[in-house]
Amino acid sequence: MTVDSKSKIAILLCISMVLSGCTVVNDEVTDGVFEILGCTDADALNFNENATINDQSCYYEEPIEILEIPHIDGCDNTNSIHCMLPFPSDAFLINDPNTVTGKRIHYSSNTIPSSGTVSPIEVPILNQIDGVSPNTQIMTAFTVDPDVSELAGQYSISKSLESGHPTILMNKLTGELVAHWVELDIRSEIDQPTIFHIRTIEALEHNTPYVVIISGLTDQVGELVPTPEGFAAIKYQQLTSSPDIENRRAEFQNLFSWIESNSDISVSELQTAWEFHTSSTESMIGPLLSMRNDALERIGDGIGCTVESNTEVFDEEGNRSHWLMTGTFTTPQYTESFFPPALIRRTSIDDRTPVFVENREIPFWLVIPNSATEQGPANLTVWGHGFLGNGNTSGLSGWANENNIAMIGTSFYGWADDDFTSIEYAVLNMQYFQHQAERLEQAMINQVVMIKTFTGICSDLTEYYSEDGTKLVDTTNPTYTGYSNGALRGPSIIALSPDLDKGVLWAGGSSFSHIIERCTQYDKFHFIFASEYGYENQLDRAVAMSIMQSLWDSTETDTYLSLREEGYLDQIEPFNLMTLFSITDLQISNISSSRMMRTGGIPLLNSSTITPYGISIVEEGHVGSVGVFFDGGYMHAPEGNEYGQEPHPAHNAIGALPMAREMAFHYLSTGSVVDTCEGNCEFSPDDLGS
Fold first, then answer.
1. pTM for the full model?
2. Are both 154 and 198 inside the same structural domain?
3. Together in a domain, 233 and 288
4. pLDDT for the residue numbered 616
5. What is the distance between the alpha carbons of residues 458 and 242, in angstroms, rounded to a whole number?
6. Are 487 and 439 spatial neighbours (Cβ–Cβ below 8 Å)?
7. How does residue 632 score in pLDDT terms, banded at 50, 70 and 90?
């Protein structure tokens, strides 16, 4: 080997030793150390697993701030003031492809407020309804009371449609603004938040989504009312501890986008907003129509009637006044028992279709006027009695003789005199309002069957003839008239009965949950309702009664008034009404009376003493529906949602007013309007007759 070759080999060995990380120093081999600068914290976003020296370059994800929001399962946690505020809300609706609306109510076991007597309160049948009541109250609350003095009120409804009004109610399908007015709940306790009511002036559309928008609402010193904490977290995109809020965040973002696209309100201006979907006509009245159809099929022209007595009644001078016939008629029954409390037998827990139980004998009363002996057969008129009354028509002989009408009645079980105790219990245990509501549904079937029976198999009873063979009763063209509660029930009876097409309603109104807030007849239950055994908190009372509206919708005045002009499928025919009201009525407020007219599309006679917002005017000779307000100059009702002071004559006055009676019974016989007021429907107590 040459010297050059040896030199080259030595050089190669040295190079290989260097490349392998080893060096030879003083004949010792050691590992080479190379320092790598970087972030050595494994929790950092830029962690370098190869770094040997931390060069302070680490950076980290910003800590996520989670806002602690009070959360209760089964509640709407966007407003911590109350489980069910705002009301009504899609928070309590779930998707269901098997319903008409594609939705269904979903109340959890703890959703409905518990009373001081019963907890929890569950009404499972509510969860089968496919939306909120179109006749609902709309409400929320804030931690600071808003100043509503410049907002739309009951006498300034048009303000609600003006640009910049702090409250907006909008039909989500059409984008149309919905007229309304606003008030604070005068019954709210001093130490509790005050309910903020958005009052609709007529029933909402069935099977329709609505949006509520509130912005620019200020308190008494002009400061913006604070936004509910849960809603604010969604608005400002703050992460919260509430699963309810987080699960609904995407829905609210869609709502915010819709609001900005369909209004001039930006998300930053919102103090609160929510949406809800109303139930379908089928969901509200489908089971009742099924029950009616089954009953009519079973009876044909009627199963039969039994006359128990037919008494001649004489006046103080010894002259015959009338005959009073009493007895029973046979009616298919769907409630488990005749006596309260009683539920309708249903097909299953998931199917509300009623099931026939048995036939029962239902009492009736029939007044035949003596006038029929001279004027010819008296037309059959169905009578609707007042709140917690009964079908006894014996006190109507004056009307009967004055107008030559035969007046027949049966009780509105559910709101009859034998329901008083069960209603007292229902205000302590809301479950029992289902019993009351279903008993009322059966009462509607009783009415329909009574009319069919007395125009059918019992249309020519021997008791309809006088001793000389004169026929006293004509059952061929029955009509309806009802007072107070009887006026509330009138639209449902006329709509459900195939034998009726018109009626006269005295001192009526619509939307029962709205009516009872101001009705002096309901104050007899308020003491126990507001007691420690019931609901001491007005928030709970208001919400609980609003929930119950969904139970009452099957027989609710508003429900059938909405169908008055066009009918419903082949199940309900259009019908006509005359509605007579008394100004300052404390039992059925004029607010509810005006609502009745708007919902039913009923025009106003030009002689009326007031012209409510949004109602058209007609004159004498009009054929079709009409409403009239009479004014006796009585003390006005309170403006707030509280009871007035009884005794107060306004409610009963128009029944004793000759010009009102003449107008009413002319309408029943002809279907046309005669202006007995002669241009002005004011009266004085001296004008009242018997």
1. 0.91
2. yes
3. no
4. 98
5. 64
6. no
7. very high
